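Supplementary Data S3. Sequence and structure tokens for construct A.
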Amino acid sequence: MPYKNNEDRNRRYKERWSNDPDFRKRLQESRPKTLKKFRNNHPNYDSEWARKNNYKAQKAWKLRNKGRVNGYVAARYAKLHTTKIERIDYSQVIEQANGVCGICGGELYPPVEIDHIIPLSKGGTHTRDNLQASHAQCNRSKHTRIL
């Protein structure tokens, strides 16, 4: 029987799965055999797939969640340097800046970055009182200096 599209086929399959216990039992019994046969014929399938596709998913997630990634990186760095760490809402740090760059004093415009006033590498903490909003260019030019 031809199907209009996959949605129709999936709907019929789900109906049959939920209403026909013999169909469900037959599939549950045959699936492990089919899977085992596939695994024997393709021993490196999972690792190959991960190598080909996982980095794409990670990269996409990192692009969608830059703030979280930066937080994770800063927290990891702080842990490695045994400093005080606090969970921070970066949007509050930006609001607290009132539209002024903490480094140059100019008006904030995107891209905005969060800067450690006393850098972690110099013994600073990853807490709200040690963070300020800054222009990306100002933050990059500051490096690890204390101004």
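Construct B, processed identically:
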Amino acid sequence: MPAIAQKRTEFRSRSAQSITRMQGNRTGLKIAQLITGSEFTGGAETHLRDLVTGIQSLGHHCTVLAGPPDNQFLSGLRRSGIPVRILSSLRKPLHPLRDPAALLEIVRELAVLKPDLVAVHTAKAGFLGRVAAAMLGLPCVCTPHGCSIVDRKSGRINRLFLALEYVAGRLGATTIAVCRDEQRLIVESRIVQRGNVKTVYNGIPDFAVPAKPGGEPVVLTMVARFDAPKDHATLLRAASNLVQHQWTLRLAGSGPLLASAKELAIRLGLEKRVEFLGECSDVSGLLSGSHIFVLMSRSEAFPISILEAMRAGLPVVASDVGGISEVIEDGETGFLIPSGDHDTLSDRLALLLDSPGLRSALGNNARKRYVTHFTAEMMVAKTLDVYADVVKPRTETLADADYRVTSKSI
């Protein structure tokens, strides 16, 4: 515990240094945070919530600009004292009429706010926000949360998005990749110059109720949207090979593929072993009552759900896609599974089901790795470092201008 406290003190000091670099004699930096609207609170929304809460606590001022709907995520921000403004035209699907209207909305809001920095999140807000910031001459940082040039359903390059990202990448904004795999994809695609891409891993606050992974009977949990990038089918097929063991599988989430997952569970004879929980408002509570966390995916960037499981002290079994291998150490904090390989998944789950001691050891290692590398304090401090590097040239230019004006008046 003393080592953990020391690490947190170091990052608080680092955040304070970033504040000093950015604000000079001012009381804090004004930051406009822009995100595309979503019906669901996913990884990008969770990241933004923890980021702005941490930034505000360090003396800065964030305003969140978001597309509709006005949901629980945005209501939660307001309860935390974060100003929120809804941009009615900022919706996820591409639209030839609505998107220009959204751009004008963003420009108007930024012109009124006069922020020191524009931070944009997700693909649509990322593109329009960078254009708007360039039009107003405002410094900008873009966090895509999964590079949009790759179609998450097919895995193929989307040529239209590639062209749009290439244009946006020439507007001077700095890009934050949430893992090295995403940074590699951005650089190799040449949509942003290598020097303008920084990696800042996601981080989450440490307030979870600890799990007891060595307990019995075993509960396996997966928290994920039922959509094409996820792979519930591989998990269900693997589970059908483990009926001789005692376990319950809990699947939290909703989405367009929920019905087909339920049908598959019935066809595999698992209807009495699998619980479909729907949207979960208390993920920490769910994980505290679990013994193994599973995330099967076809495509990922750097999933926050894995960090939540590690925070709770659970062993994690996850698909080896995207940046997952950057957080999960195979055989140390959990197991990495080739995408779609239900046989290997069955083997690894059987190993954990048979060994309470192994579950406890891997879960303990996962918890330590989370504390060492993936707390919200670390994410906020490293993000502020990037913000400082982006804002500093502008503040220095403004300071020089103020000096020249003052000198002339004297």
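The chain has two domains: 2-204+376-409, 218-373. The first helix runs from residue 2 to 23.
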